[in-house]
Design brief:
The structure is a single chain. The protein is about 45% helix and about 10% strand. It is α+β, with helices and mostly antiparallel strands and about 210 residues long. The protein has one domain: Jann2411-like fold (Orthogonal Bundle). The chain is globular. The N terminus is likely disordered.
């Protein structure tokens, strides 16, 4: 494996600034897809730079089976930026199709499958400090983490949970979420409050 050149030499990981993508605790594929979001009525790309990608994985690394240490994230490069954005866009496209119906673009499907295949993974037993299973990969850990997201996307879109995918219909929101409660209608409490306020305003406007 070719050594990866550090992206931020001499910079602490917690100093990296993210692209503002919301953290909602959704399944990792949906969380990554939501790295395209809306602010003040405009679409925002939350993964515009290598730094944004490193920060996104930093903020979510506790959710991966593969251990991502600071060095892994500080070595994020332009290749990681392109691959992460491609996976984000593919997942977002497929989520939209799952919610609205229709045929999925083959390019999006193949992007997900390619990223699964790009990083073969397996689990090994570790006994230091007690027995536990460690996720291992044959390529660098960031690629392995992306493959983990892609595999979860395969399981999500190919499994029963696809029926629970929803688009948030709060005013101006473009995020998706997994409906994990029968009464859940919004991606977040904030969006629910905005939607109720908008309905209240509309009712008052019609009766005034």
């Amino acid at each position: 494996m070719v050594a990866r050149r550090p992206y931020h030499q001499g910079v602490k990981l917690d100093e990296l600034r993210g692209g503002g993508a919301p953290t909602l605790g959704e399944p990792l594929p949906i969380e990554l897809g939501n790295a395209t979001y809306a602010a003040r009525g405009r679409l925002v790309d939350g993964l515009q730079t290598v730094e944004h990608v490193a920060a996104w994985f930093r903020d979510n690394r506790h959710r991966f089976a593969v251990p991502l240490d600071d060095g892994d994230l500080l070595r994020t490069n332009e290749r990681d930026l392109a691959a992460t954005r491609a996976l984000r866009d593919a997942v977002r496209t497929l989520t939209g199709v799952a919610v609205r119906g229709g045929d999925a673009p083959q390019e999006a499907v193949e992007t997900v499958n390619q990223q699964v295949r790009a990083a073969p993974r397996w689990r090994e037993l570790s006994w230091g400090g007690g027995p536990r299973a460690l996720a291992c990969g044959s390529v660098d850990r960031l690629a392995t983490a992306r493959a983990e997201i892609a595999q979860q996307a395969v399981d999500l879109f190919g499994g029963p949970d696809i029926a629970q995918l929803r688009a948030c219909h709060a005013p101006g929101c473009v995020l998706y979420f997994l409906k994990d409660h029968p009464r859940r209608e919004w991606c977040s409490a904030g969006c629910g409050n905005r939607a109720r306020a908008a309905r209240h305003y509309e009712r008052n406007r019609k009766t005034s």
